[in-house]
């Protein structure tokens, strides 16, 4: 727990420690989306209104023709996708098992086979594959691997305590929607970077207004009390969070200058409404204190 930039609480269990690195799961999505903002400020990406096919032309003629980066960021592409982690026939499972087309990015290879469900921009649907596409966009636009650009703009630049690792797909590209291994302290530092307005040594890394758009409700989610911004989960009180399955969280409350980072090993991948509410109650208790 960081309050006004100061460490207020640090606790570890289950033989884990400050020196350990833990897998982020989908908490990585919030870092990947932040790199879009950095790439816009650097001039590599024009704007969130750009078509995804501008950066990944292999998607021309697919269901992603006409889908914008903003629609990927808000998970409102309208593409049909099943994220059920317990279903071996879900898109999430098939993404990792369907053969990759020769010479093609593994994400693009699978995502271009999908079909439309509803018109773009009309409905929210959680889709890890689309965050992987966002990662591919950043890498294509910058000419750098996602991890090297993340290090240049945030990780090394902001002064994280430990190196992190990022899981690669079958074509050797980072999973933009998942799987950064880092220390709990450094996840908290990323939260502080966001709380501080996305600045390194006082210099902005992100465009003006980026965080205001990224961390406000753009769509209602399917979870009670939670909206969705640019890969951030939002609450009506102005707080917002990065979430990963099995209980990974970075919770940021700007009104209280508060950052809470939690690593967990919950047994169930699919979160229940009760577990979401229980975690919200924990945050509320810390906020009250």
What's the short story on this structure?
The chain has 9 helices and 13 strands. It has 289 residues and is α+β, with helices and mostly antiparallel strands. The strands form 3 sheets. An 8-stranded antiparallel β-sheet has the order 2-1-13-12-11-10-9-8, with helices on one face. Strands 3-5-4 form a 3-stranded antiparallel β-sheet, covered by helices on one side. A two-stranded antiparallel ribbon has the order 6-7.
Descriptive overview:
- By secondary structure, this protein is an alpha+beta fold.
- The chain is 32% helix and 13% strand.
- The chain contains nine helices and 13 strands.
- It has helices spanning 28-41, 69-73, 91-97, 106-111, 128-142, 146-158, 184-195, 210-214, 273-288, and strands at residues 2-3, 6-7, 22-23, 165-166, 180-182, 199-200, 203-204, 219-220, 227-228, 233-234, 240-244, 248-253, 258-262.
- The strands form three sheets. An eight-stranded antiparallel beta sheet has the order 2-1-13-12-11-10-9-8, with helices on one face. Strands 3-5-4 form a three-stranded antiparallel beta sheet, with helices on one face.
- Helix 1 packs parallel to helix 5 and helix 1 crosses helix 6.
- The mean pLDDT is 96.
Secondary-structure element pattern, one letter each: EEEHHHHHHEEHEEHEEEEEEH
Helix content: 25-40%
User: What is the SS-derived class?
Assistant: alpha+beta
**What is the number of helical segments per DSSP (H or I, 4+ residues)?**
9
Low-confidence stretches: none
How much is the radius of gyration in Å? Answer: 18 Å
According to DSSP, the number of beta strands is: 13
Oligomer: single chain
The global form is globular
pLDDT average, as an integer?
96
Q: Beta fraction of the residues?
A: 5-15%
Largest sheet: 8 strands, antiparallel
